[in-house]
Amino acid sequence: MSSKKKKHKRHGKQQTRAHAPAAKINQALQPEKAKNPPARQPAAGNRSAAAARIDWFSNLNQETEHTVMTRNVSKIYHLGEETVHALDDVSVTIDRGEYISIMGPSGSGKTTLFNIVGALLKPNEGNVFIDEVDVAQLDANELAWLRCRKIGYIFQSYNIVKVFTALENVTLPMLFAGVPPDEAQDRAINILERVGLGDRILHTPKELSGGQQQRVAIARAFANRPAIILADEPTANLDLHTGEEIIHLMKEMNREQGVTVICATHDHKMLDISDRIIWMEDGRVKKIANRDEVKIDIAEMREK
């Protein structure tokens, strides 16, 4: 029997069980199944703006040298009479395939920058470009398309659906992206095997350890083959050994797929695998350094 046939036999039960929610979700998504973002018609009397953005879909689908650029980005919160500058004039450029760690104390602006780059927050001032597309110019449907297909998210608390199996969790974003159910399931099985969960694909989160749940979250983030992975404190809830496994797994996926990884973290072990490190303080970029410019004693950090 060929390896392909063996695989289908081995996962026969998984396929039957996964198809119920997959088919139900896919049916609900049928009207918006197209893989391309919605076409936008230029507004009357706004020819210059329309001309400037006529190729926005082409740009979103292209791969450019600079995956992320922020220019003079500021984010301000008003808390009563107090004004908080969560980000203050932040300008960074991140190239395709880079592994970037963003360091800084709590309140330094790491997570705010993470959320703005991920199109989850809008800046009060400045611009964010994803593959040279100005995110501020996109409407709600276009932003949803961008988040679904261009960006993968990994959160500190995993944020996987508790009533879904690992397989269903990883399949779900592909169904939202319009991938046919059978293809989505096959891809989900392959990526779960890649992250070391081939024998756990039918397990729900309560049947998985913290490290295994984070592996599911990593698999889900990579499912739609995004250009960018945004990881917010991915090792914060894990023990030392499991945290190191997750760190090296993310680096391996970064190298294999050429995806840009941007990680907001307090974990100094993350620095050892980074290409560059961005230090933030009081909402500003304090310093940017290449990995070879930073002295890191991994043995000492393991003892702490």
Description:
- Helix content is 39%, strand content 22%.
- The chain has 304 residues and is of the alpha/beta class.
- The strands form 2 sheets. Strands 6-7-8-3-9-10 form a 6-stranded mixed beta sheet, with helices on both faces. The chain has a 4-stranded antiparallel beta sheet with strand order 2-1-4-5.
- A hairpin with a 2-residue loop joins strand 9 and strand 10.
- Helix 8 (181-194) packs across helix 9 (210-222).
- The longest helix has 18 residues, at 12-29.
Through-space gap between termini: 51 Å
Number of strands: 10
Query: What structural category characterises the helix and strand content?
Result: alpha/beta
Helix content: 25-40%
What proportion of the residues form beta strands (DSSP E)?
15-25%
Please outline the major beta sheet.
6 strands, mixed
